[in-house]
Amino acid sequence: VKRGHGVGGKETREAEGKRRKMGQENNPPTPVVTSPSADGRNGNGNGRDHHGVHHDNDDSQEVRHLHPDATRTLDVALGMPLSGCRYKCTELVRVMEQALYSLGYPDVAKHLENSSGVDLHSDRVRRLQEGCLSGEWGMVIRLIDTEKMHLFGLDSSDVAEGGASPQVGLEERVQKAKFLILEQKYLECLSSGDVQQALQCLREEITPLGINMPRLHELASLMRCRSWMDLMESKAWGEKPSSSLSSWGQSSGKDDGLGHVSEGAAVVVNNGSLGRAGGSSNNNGTSASGGANPQVSRQQLLRKLQEVIPSSVMLPENRLESLLGQAVANQISQCMYYNKTDTTFSLLSDYSCGPEQIPSVTCQVLDGHSDEVWHIQFSSSGQMLASASADGTCIIWDYAPPEASDLNGGGSSSAAKKKFKLKHELLGHKKPIAFVCWSPNDKYLLTCGNDHVLNAWDVETGRVFERYEKHTDSVTSCAWLPDSKRFVSGSIDKHIYMWHLDGRCIRHWKGSRINDLAISRNGKWMVSTSNEKKFHLFNLVMDTETIVQEQESIISLCLSKHSDLLLVNLQNQKIHLWDLNEFFECCGTPDALPTEPVRRYRGQHEKQGRYVIRSCFGGSNETFVVSGSEDSQVYIWHQQKGELLKVLSGHSGTVNAVTWNPADPYTFASASDDHSIRIWGTSEGGH
How far apart are alpha carbons 474 and 269 in whole angstroms? Predict the structure, then answer.
């Protein structure tokens, strides 16, 4: 609305449209608008400003319709060097309208639609959405048949840019859409117990489409299901619906068990609040009262239809949030030191941070051991720390809030709050302990000894829960499976054993002397390494083994939290990063096997190592790689970029191991031959 315009002179959209049409006959609009002139006006005399908006000479008129082809340059809009890049003003308005609806401002959004002449969705799309949400499947199929060119065809801009015909892939998209809709109809018939109607839908409607035969066979196998819960347990709709999706039947008060709530669906679609209706639902797709709630899966159906309906026809859900997320993610990727834990970002300024985000200040020194400390590991909760030493003991350190004396002593609040105190000193090995490992539930701790013994400790009592004495040489490493009941152990004796917590040996592998072991997060894969220039990938489900070659002998390894990345420390003190995601996703397909590391981390003195040095991932999103070294320093790199960010001094001997607190991205610990453990944090005000 132009400044000074009142609302008393507003015309209807029909009258405005007629008047625009008459005016354009004598003065056709410029479809693509260039940058504005110095005085801020287009200067073409056609009544449009540099945004491509039609202005009337009548000052009482508040309707300002956008020309469909009006564009703006991205470099002007965002102040970025994107020469020649443009976007459509109408698309921006549609995104704004969707955001206003979702934020709960339907009146403002409708006013924007009326003022700009740009509708969020066409009447056809609204009818499609209402029909899907109301379960009016016959009407939806007829709408697709009669309006398929408008619903599934490429728009003019897609044709102009890609050079493709609007008909290319049209029938394929239509068939896929019908399959999805009829699949929903079939599943709802089954969930209501109408087996005859479900069978008729399967035979007479879905099968004749002749596509997606594997899914068709899956649907046929669901005929045994007789309730909504049966279908949910069989994952007929895939994964369980999100709890954020709502129960439409409850909110409208007209649900008859199948969700025929066309009035409620129309209200939600007209308000642009798809996916944000009132009411509640449970994670299993049922209503709060325990009844069937197909509205959850119907909203999922609309999301699936988005894959076959062009975005120019049906705007993707939460499009503005998606664009903002991409912008924030790009800003974060440009920051080498990103390590935040809070999830709120300001949209008013670009995100930036400095090296203060990286823990680089010694907050505490733990000196409970009388000999070299060889390994340390934080518990899953981050509340406890376990350390293994050449003195034959393992100490469990417990995080405790600062005492009053600490807070009143005038020291740094950051240093005062990071206090670990001795909880248990575990005495059960006759020789040095090389490795410790927490169970995922933090109830048990494994210790690997050079006395050939593997002990499981009860963390609460500090007593031995079980001893495992099958190895005939030093036990070098161990790793838990996700159930906290099974684990594997490796030894210099060239054997790997899988154990049950109760002492039973479940499986056995024989090969080379084992330096290190790791288990994937889902428990399907085991990674091991020996003194050779390779590491082994064991598929624990298929019982297969795959070998990956390295350049040098591997002395230790570390899997990322999501088990898609693998760090390997080489004997020459180099560190390599391997991407195993595709290989694991493809269930070990040889074609997906990586042939070389994706990143190499350098900076420490590269020489032939004498000791086992361990590294790990760290930071809020595993942004960093941290490692010890034989030169008594701690090194921190950016995981993706490979740049060395910090070199920390403090230890007076070889730093054997490091561990990052999984619950606190601003804390990690290092263990050294100088008999000490250092807790590293940020300076006061660093986060």
Answer: 67
Among residues 240, 429, 340, the alpha carbon closest in space to that of 621 is found at 340
Nearest-5° angle of CA 653, CA 654, CA 655?
Answer: 110
Element of type H or E holding 264: helix 262-270
The answer to whether residues 426 and 432 touch, using CB atoms and an 8 Å cutoff, is no
pLDDT digits over 330-383, tens only? 888 888 898 887 767 888 888 888 899 999 999 999 999 999 999 999 999 999
Q: What is the pLDDT of residue 676?
A: 97
How would you classify the pairing of strands 655-660 and 644-648? unpaired
The H or E element spanning position 524 is none
Residue 126 to residue 302: CA distance in whole angstroms = 12
Both tokens of 107, joined, read 């009146």
Q: State the pLDDT at residue 29.
A: 42
pLDDT the model gives residue 529: 95
Q: 110 in helix, strand or coil? A: helix
Of the candidates 289, 228, 291, 223, the one whose C-alpha atom is nearest the C-alpha of residue 257 is 291
| Radius of gyration for the alpha carbons in the chain, expressed in angstroms and rounded | 32
Q: 429: which residues sit within 8 A by CB, 6+ positions away?
A: 392, 393, 394, 447, 449, 450, 451, 453, 455
The separation between the first and the last C-alpha atoms of the chain, rounded to the nearest angstrom, is 44
pLDDT given for residue 184 in this prediction: 93
On whether the CB atoms of residues 133 and 268 are closer than 8 A, the answer is yes
> Exposed e or buried b for every residue in 357-380, given b needs 16+ CB within 10 A?
bbbbbbbbebebbeebbbbbbbbb
**What does the alpha-carbon distance between residue 255 and residue 460 come to, in Å, rounded to a whole number?**
51
Query: What per-residue confidence (pLDDT) applies to 227?
Result: 61
Residue type, 602: R
646 vs 652: CA distance, rounded Å = 18
- Find out whether 679 and 669 touch, Cβ atoms under 8 Å: yes
Measure the CA–CA gap between 125 and 274, rounded to whole angstroms: 12
Instruction: Please give the DSSP secondary-structure letter assigned to residue 242.
Output: P
Q: What pLDDT was estimated at residue 38? A: 34
Residues 6+ apart with CB under 8 A from 204: none
Whole-angstrom distance, CA of residue 453 vs CA of residue 446: 10
**Helix (H/G/I), strand (E/B), else coil: 140:** helix
CA dist 406 and 410 (Å) reads 8
Specify whether the CB–CB gap between 664 and 382 falls below 8 A: yes
**The amino acid at 567:** L
Q: Are 646 and 360 in contact (CB under 8 A)?
A: yes
Distance CA 297, CA 295 (A): 5
At 469-515, the pLDDT tens digits run 999 999 999 999 999 999 999 999 999 999 999 999 999 999 899 99
- What are the DSSP calls for 564-582, one per residue? SEEEEEETTS-EEEEE-HH
- Helix spans in 30-136 (H): 74-78, 89-102, 106-116, 123-134
DSSP conformation class of 66: B
Query: Which SS3 state, helix, strand or coil, does residue 155 take?
Result: coil
**Edge-to-edge strands, sheet with 475-480:** 475-480, 486-491, 495-500, 505-510
Residue ranges in the chain modelled with pLDDT below 50: 1-61, 158-166, 239-268, 270-292, 405, 407, 409-416, 685
Would you say 412 and 681 are in contact if contact means Cβ atoms under 8 Å apart?
no
126, 134 Cβ separation under 8 angstroms:
no
From residue 385, how far is each of 118, 375, 494, 649 by CA, in Å?
A: 59, 11, 29, 21
Outline where 306-375 has alpha helix (H): 319-333
Query: Given this model, what pLDDT does residue 594 score?
Result: 93
Contact 72, 82 (CB under 8 A): no
